[in-house]
Amino acid sequence: MRRFLIAGNWKMNCGPGETATLISNLKQRLPSVPDGVDVLVCPPEISLTTAADELVDSKIMFGAQNVHFEDNGAFTGEVSTKMLTEVGCHYVIAGHSERREYFAETDQTVHRKTKKALEAGLKPIICVGESLDQRKKDVHDTMVSKQVQAALNGVDESLIQDTVIAYEPIWAIGTGETATPEQAQEMHNMIRNVIADLYDERSAEAVRILYGGSMKPHNAEELLRQTDVDGGLIGGASLQADSFAEIIEIAEKLS
Known about the structure:
44% of the residues lie in helices and 15% in strands. By secondary structure, it is an alpha/beta fold.
């Protein structure tokens, strides 16, 4: 049975001081991580060492929001897998919709980042999703399927269980809109079927697929009850200890 993964993507929020405060508040609000749930926070790169210090005696894991696909070199502003593993990261987000939209990330760069992360022992959270226009044109299945296939191209079957997919209906990020539980389940099931076609049913059943479209305490239970929804990639709600902890508690109740 897949364990729920509740992951907080803090985006460009929380420098080292705010990171220390938010993690402290989260640990006070949630003294122990529930047994049936994996909990992850992804602060900005500048705050990763602070997160490492604050979480030294905690079961809460931390990860990065981005990584480069080369080991080192003249890539100003980038960070390598070696840097992330040295500081203690467990996961790294690859191909978030904002990276694709604002920083020209492509299916090919997401693929290279995915393979580099897995080679380094990091677990990539591969973000896929469709725009409102693509959904209206009824090509969302095709677009998301293509993104999954491109990201996993050449990934060895032995590593697939270390891969996480996050489905982001782009039209529901930061807009207050949310895919219905039925829409989320439909897309998650489609993604799992794509993985089964690429590998096999056993591999597909091992991969956790997170919902990444404005999950909040008021809608988390309905979404997490869906068969193929294995957790959430949480944005705004992860920046408040109370709301993030509430989603984690909902996941524990359902685990």
